[in-house]
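Q: I'm building a small set of examples for a reading group on sequence design. Run inverse folding on the following structure and report the sequence directly after it, with nothing in between.
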C-alpha cells in the first residue's frame, strides 16, 4: 500500500484548523470533515486529481464508489478552496480526456453506430471534471451522450470544434489552420477543395467545413494518427 505524503504539511494543517474553527469547534459535521480532508489532499497534490478512482481507493483503503462520492460532494461543498478559472479548468480536463492513451482506449469501446456518426468516446473519472466537461458540451448547443456508463462520454468531432472555438483554443485564422492541414492532404474531398482556394480569400466557414469533414472521416476510420493530428489542431496543448 502506498503511503500518502503531504507536499505542504504546514499549509494543510493551517487550512484545516482555520476551517474547523471558523464557525466554532465541532460546528462541522463528520461528513463535512471527511469532504474537507479529501479536498485538501487533492489541493495539496498528495492525491492527484488525475488519478483514477480505483487508484485513489487503493491508497485510501475505501471502495471506488466512496472515492466517487468524495470527489463529487467534496467539490460541491468546498469548491472555494480550489479556485480555478473556467478556461484553465477546461484546458486541464480536455488535455487529460483527449490524451492519446484515452483516445485509443475509447476507440475500443465506442459502438460502431456512434463511431459512424462521428462520436469519440472519452473517459473522465473525476465527477467534478466530468460535470464541467458536460457543461462545456451543453454551452455549445450539444448534448452529452454516454457510452456504457456515465464515466464515458461520447462527443462528436464537430462539438469538440465548437468547444475549441468557444474557449479560444482554436484561433479563427484560416491561413494558419490551412498551413497545419496541408500535410494531411488528400485526406478528404473537403480538404482537397480547400487547398485549391486562394488562402487570402478563404472564409472561416470554409475552414470549419473542411475540419468537420476531416474529423468525421478520421473518427469513422478509428483512433489513428489522422484523428490525433486533427485534435492537436483544435487543442494545441493536447
Amino acid at each position: 500500500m502506498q503511503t500518502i505524503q503531504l507536499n505542504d504539511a504546514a499549509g494543510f494543517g493551517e487550512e484545516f484548523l482555520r476551517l474547523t474553527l471558523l464557525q466554532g469547534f465541532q460546528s462541522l459535521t463528520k461528513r463535512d470533515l471527511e469532504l474537507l480532508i479529501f479536498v485538501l489532499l487533492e489541493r495539496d497534490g498528495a492525491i492527484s486529481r488525475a488519478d483514477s478512482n480505483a487508484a485513489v481507493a487503493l491508497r485510501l483503503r475505501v471502495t471506488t464508489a466512496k472515492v466517487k462520492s468524495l470527489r463529487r460532494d467534496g467539490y460541491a461543498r468546498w469548491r472555494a478552496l480550489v479556485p480555478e478559472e473556467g478556461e484553465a479548468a477546461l484546458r486541464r480536463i480536455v488535455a487529460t480526456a483527449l490524451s492519446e492513451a484515452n483516445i485509443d482506449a475509447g476507440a475500443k469501446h465506442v459502438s460502431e453506430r456512434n463511431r459512424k456518426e462521428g462520436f469519440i468516446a472519452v473517459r473522465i473519472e473525476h465527477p467534478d471534471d466530468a460535470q464541467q466537461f458536460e457543461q462545456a458540451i451543453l454551452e455549445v448547443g450539444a448534448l452529452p451522450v454516454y457510452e456504457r456508463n456515465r464515466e464515458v462520454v461520447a462527443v462528436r468531432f464537430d462539438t469538440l470544434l465548437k468547444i475549441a472555438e468557444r474557449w479560444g483554443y482554436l484561433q479563427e485564422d484560416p491561413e494558419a489552420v490551412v498551413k497545419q492541414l496541408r500535410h494531411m492532404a488528400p485526406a478528404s474531398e473537403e480538404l482537397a477543395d480547400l487547398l485549391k482556394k486562394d488562402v487570402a480569400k478563404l472564409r472561416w466557414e470554409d475552414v470549419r467545413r473542411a475540419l468537420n469533414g476531416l474529423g468525421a472521416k478520421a473518427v469513422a476510420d478509428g483512433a489513428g494518427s489522422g484523428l490525433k493530428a486533427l485534435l492537436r489542431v483544435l487543442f494545441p496543448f493536447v
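The longest strand covers residues 149-156.
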